[in-house]
Amino acid sequence: MYTRRAVAAGLLAVALGATAAAAATREQSAGTLAVRQVPAVVRTPVAQVVVPKAAPAPAGLPKISYWSAASGLPRDPATHSGSALVEGLRPYGKTAIYDAPGGEPRAFLPRSISGLPVTAPVVDKRPGWLAVLIPSINRRIGWVPTSAGAVHRLRDQLVVDRSRRELTWLRDGRQRGHWKVAVGSSRTPTPLGRTFVMGRTITQGSVYGGLDALVLGAVPDDREALSASLRNGHTAIHAWTDESAFGRSISNGCVRVPPDVQRLLLEHLPEGVPVNVVE
Question: Hey, what domains does the chain have and what are their CATH numbers?
Fold first, then answer.
Protein backbone atom coordinates (compact mmCIF):
# COMPACT_ATOMS: atom_id res chain seq x y z
CA MET A 1 0.00 0.00 0.00
CA TYR A 2 1.33 3.46 -0.78
CA THR A 3 0.22 7.11 -1.20
CA ARG A 4 0.87 9.56 -4.02
CA ARG A 5 1.31 13.30 -3.96
CA ALA A 6 2.07 15.64 -6.86
CA VAL A 7 4.70 18.29 -6.10
CA ALA A 8 5.51 21.58 -7.83
CA ALA A 9 8.48 20.19 -9.72
CA GLY A 10 6.39 17.46 -11.25
CA LEU A 11 8.01 14.65 -9.26
CA LEU A 12 6.15 11.77 -7.84
CA ALA A 13 7.48 10.29 -4.58
CA VAL A 14 6.45 6.81 -3.65
CA ALA A 15 6.86 5.86 0.01
CA LEU A 16 6.81 2.23 0.93
CA GLY A 17 6.49 0.90 4.51
CA ALA A 18 9.36 1.36 7.01
CA THR A 19 10.42 -2.24 6.58
CA ALA A 20 10.37 -2.28 2.77
CA ALA A 21 13.57 -3.40 1.03
CA ALA A 22 13.22 -1.16 -2.09
CA ALA A 23 12.67 2.52 -2.80
CA ALA A 24 11.31 3.95 -6.06
CA THR A 25 11.05 7.39 -7.63
CA ARG A 26 9.14 8.40 -10.72
CA GLU A 27 9.74 11.43 -12.88
CA GLN A 28 6.50 12.43 -14.64
CA SER A 29 8.15 14.20 -17.60
CA ALA A 30 10.25 11.19 -18.54
CA GLY A 31 7.68 8.61 -17.61
CA THR A 32 10.27 6.29 -16.14
CA LEU A 33 10.49 4.43 -12.88
CA ALA A 34 13.89 3.91 -11.20
CA VAL A 35 14.22 1.25 -8.51
CA ARG A 36 17.16 1.10 -6.05
CA GLN A 37 17.64 -2.15 -4.22
CA VAL A 38 18.94 -1.77 -0.63
CA PRO A 39 21.81 -4.29 -0.22
CA ALA A 40 21.44 -6.90 2.47
CA VAL A 41 23.93 -6.88 5.35
CA VAL A 42 26.50 -9.67 4.90
CA ARG A 43 27.95 -10.96 8.17
CA THR A 44 31.48 -12.37 7.98
CA PRO A 45 31.87 -15.53 10.07
CA VAL A 46 34.24 -15.06 13.02
CA ALA A 47 37.11 -17.53 12.85
CA GLN A 48 37.61 -19.53 16.00
CA VAL A 49 41.02 -19.22 17.65
CA VAL A 50 42.59 -22.62 18.17
CA VAL A 51 44.72 -22.78 21.31
CA PRO A 52 47.33 -25.58 21.17
CA LYS A 53 47.02 -27.92 24.12
CA ALA A 54 49.89 -28.45 26.52
CA ALA A 55 51.09 -32.04 26.47
CA PRO A 56 51.55 -33.65 29.89
CA ALA A 57 55.09 -33.18 31.15
CA PRO A 58 56.99 -36.33 32.19
CA ALA A 59 57.97 -36.32 35.84
CA GLY A 60 61.60 -36.99 34.91
CA LEU A 61 62.13 -33.74 33.03
CA PRO A 62 65.19 -31.76 34.18
CA LYS A 63 64.54 -28.80 36.46
CA ILE A 64 66.19 -25.49 35.66
CA SER A 65 68.52 -24.56 38.52
CA TYR A 66 71.23 -22.02 39.25
CA TRP A 67 73.79 -24.45 37.86
CA SER A 68 72.08 -25.82 34.76
CA ALA A 69 69.23 -25.35 32.30
CA ALA A 70 67.99 -27.80 29.67
CA SER A 71 68.66 -28.69 26.05
CA GLY A 72 66.23 -28.44 23.16
CA LEU A 73 64.95 -24.94 23.91
CA PRO A 74 64.65 -22.54 20.95
CA ARG A 75 66.99 -19.60 20.42
CA ASP A 76 65.80 -16.12 21.26
CA PRO A 77 64.69 -14.91 17.79
CA ALA A 78 65.16 -11.25 18.74
CA THR A 79 68.25 -11.47 20.88
CA HIS A 80 69.58 -8.15 19.54
CA SER A 81 66.26 -6.33 19.76
CA GLY A 82 66.29 -3.04 21.62
CA SER A 83 62.55 -3.12 22.28
CA ALA A 84 61.62 -2.86 25.94
CA LEU A 85 60.18 -5.94 27.62
CA VAL A 86 57.31 -4.71 29.77
CA GLU A 87 55.86 -7.90 31.28
CA GLY A 88 57.26 -10.67 33.46
CA LEU A 89 55.87 -14.07 34.39
CA ARG A 90 55.92 -15.25 37.99
CA PRO A 91 55.18 -18.99 38.00
CA TYR A 92 52.57 -20.23 40.46
CA GLY A 93 54.71 -23.30 41.01
CA LYS A 94 56.94 -25.71 39.11
CA THR A 95 55.82 -25.30 35.51
CA ALA A 96 56.77 -27.15 32.35
CA ILE A 97 58.67 -25.27 29.65
CA TYR A 98 57.85 -26.20 26.03
CA ASP A 99 59.86 -25.70 22.84
CA ALA A 100 56.80 -24.26 21.05
CA PRO A 101 53.12 -23.58 21.78
CA GLY A 102 51.70 -27.07 22.15
CA GLY A 103 55.17 -28.50 21.51
CA GLU A 104 57.40 -30.83 23.45
CA PRO A 105 58.06 -30.20 27.15
CA ARG A 106 61.79 -29.74 27.77
CA ALA A 107 62.25 -28.77 31.42
CA PHE A 108 60.58 -27.51 34.56
CA LEU A 109 60.91 -23.86 35.59
CA PRO A 110 60.58 -23.62 39.38
CA ARG A 111 58.97 -20.81 41.32
CA SER A 112 62.36 -19.88 42.78
CA ILE A 113 65.97 -20.70 41.95
CA SER A 114 68.49 -20.87 44.80
CA GLY A 115 66.10 -18.83 46.91
CA LEU A 116 65.61 -16.16 44.21
CA PRO A 117 61.94 -15.74 43.16
CA VAL A 118 61.61 -16.21 39.40
CA THR A 119 60.23 -13.36 37.28
CA ALA A 120 60.95 -14.24 33.66
CA PRO A 121 60.45 -11.45 31.08
CA VAL A 122 57.84 -12.18 28.43
CA VAL A 123 59.26 -11.90 24.89
CA ASP A 124 56.38 -13.20 22.76
CA LYS A 125 52.74 -14.24 22.91
CA ARG A 126 50.44 -16.69 21.13
CA PRO A 127 46.83 -17.58 21.96
CA GLY A 128 46.99 -19.34 25.32
CA TRP A 129 50.82 -19.23 25.46
CA LEU A 130 53.68 -16.98 26.55
CA ALA A 131 57.37 -17.12 25.59
CA VAL A 132 59.81 -16.15 28.36
CA LEU A 133 63.56 -15.76 28.72
CA ILE A 134 65.17 -18.80 30.32
CA PRO A 135 67.83 -18.39 33.04
CA SER A 136 71.07 -20.36 33.42
CA ILE A 137 71.49 -20.53 29.66
CA ASN A 138 72.22 -17.77 27.15
CA ARG A 139 69.86 -16.49 24.45
CA ARG A 140 67.19 -19.16 24.86
CA ILE A 141 63.45 -18.90 25.35
CA GLY A 142 60.70 -21.30 26.38
CA TRP A 143 56.93 -21.42 26.03
CA VAL A 144 54.47 -21.81 28.91
CA PRO A 145 50.66 -21.85 29.06
CA THR A 146 49.22 -18.52 30.20
CA SER A 147 47.74 -20.34 33.19
CA ALA A 148 51.25 -21.16 34.49
CA GLY A 149 51.68 -17.93 36.41
CA ALA A 150 50.80 -14.31 37.00
CA VAL A 151 51.99 -11.62 34.59
CA HIS A 152 53.38 -8.47 36.18
CA ARG A 153 54.39 -5.14 34.70
CA LEU A 154 58.10 -4.46 34.25
CA ARG A 155 58.99 -0.76 34.40
CA ASP A 156 62.79 -0.93 34.32
CA GLN A 157 65.38 -1.95 31.77
CA LEU A 158 69.18 -2.07 31.77
CA VAL A 159 71.33 -1.77 28.66
CA VAL A 160 75.01 -2.75 28.73
CA ASP A 161 77.04 -1.48 25.79
CA ARG A 162 80.19 -3.61 25.57
CA SER A 163 82.02 -1.48 23.01
CA ARG A 164 81.37 1.77 24.87
CA ARG A 165 81.72 0.18 28.32
CA GLU A 166 78.54 1.91 29.45
CA LEU A 167 75.49 1.00 31.52
CA THR A 168 72.13 2.73 31.02
CA TRP A 169 69.12 2.46 33.31
CA LEU A 170 65.68 3.16 31.84
CA ARG A 171 62.37 3.41 33.68
CA ASP A 172 59.16 3.59 31.68
CA GLY A 173 61.32 4.28 28.63
CA ARG A 174 63.06 7.30 30.17
CA GLN A 175 66.71 7.38 31.10
CA ARG A 176 67.32 7.41 34.84
CA GLY A 177 71.07 6.83 34.82
CA HIS A 178 74.06 6.43 32.54
CA TRP A 179 77.55 5.41 33.69
CA LYS A 180 80.97 4.24 32.57
CA VAL A 181 81.55 0.67 33.75
CA ALA A 182 83.90 -2.26 33.27
CA VAL A 183 82.83 -5.26 31.16
CA GLY A 184 84.29 -8.64 30.29
CA SER A 185 87.66 -9.01 28.64
CA SER A 186 88.15 -10.33 25.12
CA ARG A 187 88.82 -13.79 26.57
CA THR A 188 85.90 -13.73 29.02
CA PRO A 189 83.37 -11.33 27.42
CA THR A 190 80.08 -10.30 28.97
CA PRO A 191 77.54 -12.50 27.11
CA LEU A 192 75.63 -10.68 24.39
CA GLY A 193 71.85 -10.74 24.13
CA ARG A 194 68.83 -10.45 26.35
CA THR A 195 68.85 -11.70 29.92
CA PHE A 196 67.37 -10.49 33.22
CA VAL A 197 68.02 -9.83 36.89
CA MET A 198 67.37 -13.01 38.86
CA GLY A 199 67.90 -11.31 42.22
CA ARG A 200 70.65 -10.28 44.60
CA THR A 201 73.35 -12.21 46.40
CA ILE A 202 76.04 -11.40 48.93
CA THR A 203 79.65 -10.74 47.96
CA GLN A 204 82.90 -11.37 49.77
CA GLY A 205 85.91 -9.10 49.59
CA SER A 206 86.55 -5.42 50.19
CA VAL A 207 86.77 -4.69 46.45
CA TYR A 208 82.96 -5.18 46.26
CA GLY A 209 82.39 -2.37 48.73
CA GLY A 210 80.33 -4.54 51.06
CA LEU A 211 77.40 -4.43 48.60
CA ASP A 212 75.27 -7.24 47.22
CA ALA A 213 75.54 -8.21 43.55
CA LEU A 214 72.67 -8.36 41.08
CA VAL A 215 72.77 -11.86 39.62
CA LEU A 216 71.76 -12.20 35.96
CA GLY A 217 70.32 -15.16 34.11
CA ALA A 218 73.32 -15.17 31.77
CA VAL A 219 76.26 -17.55 32.24
CA PRO A 220 79.77 -17.58 30.72
CA ASP A 221 79.79 -18.38 27.01
CA ASP A 222 83.12 -20.17 27.40
CA ARG A 223 83.37 -21.75 30.82
CA GLU A 224 86.81 -23.21 30.08
CA ALA A 225 88.25 -19.69 29.81
CA LEU A 226 87.57 -19.13 33.51
CA SER A 227 89.20 -20.53 36.59
CA ALA A 228 87.55 -23.64 38.00
CA SER A 229 85.95 -21.69 40.86
CA LEU A 230 84.09 -19.39 38.44
CA ARG A 231 83.01 -21.76 35.67
CA ASN A 232 79.62 -22.58 37.15
CA GLY A 233 78.79 -19.04 38.17
CA HIS A 234 76.49 -16.46 36.63
CA THR A 235 77.20 -13.08 35.15
CA ALA A 236 76.41 -10.30 37.62
CA ILE A 237 76.36 -6.54 38.07
CA HIS A 238 78.37 -5.63 41.15
CA ALA A 239 80.25 -2.79 42.81
CA TRP A 240 83.98 -2.29 42.29
CA THR A 241 86.04 0.04 44.42
CA ASP A 242 88.99 0.33 42.02
CA GLU A 243 88.06 3.27 39.80
CA SER A 244 90.78 2.48 37.25
CA ALA A 245 88.61 -0.39 35.96
CA PHE A 246 85.83 1.78 34.57
CA GLY A 247 85.79 2.30 30.83
CA ARG A 248 87.77 -0.90 30.25
CA SER A 249 87.13 -4.51 29.21
CA ILE A 250 88.91 -6.38 31.98
CA SER A 251 86.44 -8.44 34.03
CA ASN A 252 85.64 -12.15 34.01
CA GLY A 253 82.34 -11.31 32.34
CA CYS A 254 80.59 -9.37 35.08
CA VAL A 255 79.67 -5.71 34.84
CA ARG A 256 81.61 -3.69 37.43
CA VAL A 257 80.06 -0.41 38.53
CA PRO A 258 80.98 2.34 41.03
CA PRO A 259 79.69 1.62 44.56
CA ASP A 260 77.26 4.56 44.54
CA VAL A 261 75.74 3.24 41.32
CA GLN A 262 75.34 -0.23 42.82
CA ARG A 263 73.58 1.25 45.86
CA LEU A 264 71.14 3.01 43.55
CA LEU A 265 70.43 -0.12 41.53
CA LEU A 266 69.94 -2.25 44.63
CA GLU A 267 67.52 0.30 46.01
CA HIS A 268 65.32 0.54 42.94
CA LEU A 269 65.57 -2.61 40.82
CA PRO A 270 63.53 -5.73 41.63
CA GLU A 271 63.98 -9.22 40.20
CA GLY A 272 62.89 -9.67 36.60
CA VAL A 273 64.41 -6.47 35.21
CA PRO A 274 65.41 -7.13 31.56
CA VAL A 275 69.08 -6.62 30.71
CA ASN A 276 70.12 -6.16 27.10
CA VAL A 277 73.84 -6.59 26.39
CA VAL A 278 74.77 -5.02 23.04
CA GLU A 279 78.00 -4.56 21.11
Answer: 1-39 (no CATH), 51-154 (2.30.30), 156-278 (2.40.440.10)
Q: How far apart are CA 270 and CA 88, in angstroms?
A: 11
For residue 193, give the H/E element and its range: strand 193-201
Which among 168, 181, 167 has a CA at the least distance from the CA of 245? 181
Reported as a pLDDT band with limits 50, 70 and 90, residue 48 is confident
How much is the pTM?
0.82
Q: What is the pLDDT of residue 5?
A: 40
C-alpha 181/C-alpha 279 separation (Å) is: 14
Which positions are annotated as active-site residues?
238, 254
Asked if residues 154 and 274 have their Cβ atoms less than 8 Å apart, the reply is yes
In a 13 Å sphere around the CA of 12, the CA atoms on its Cβ side amount to 14
Identity of residue 216: L
Distance CA 195, CA 79 (A): 9
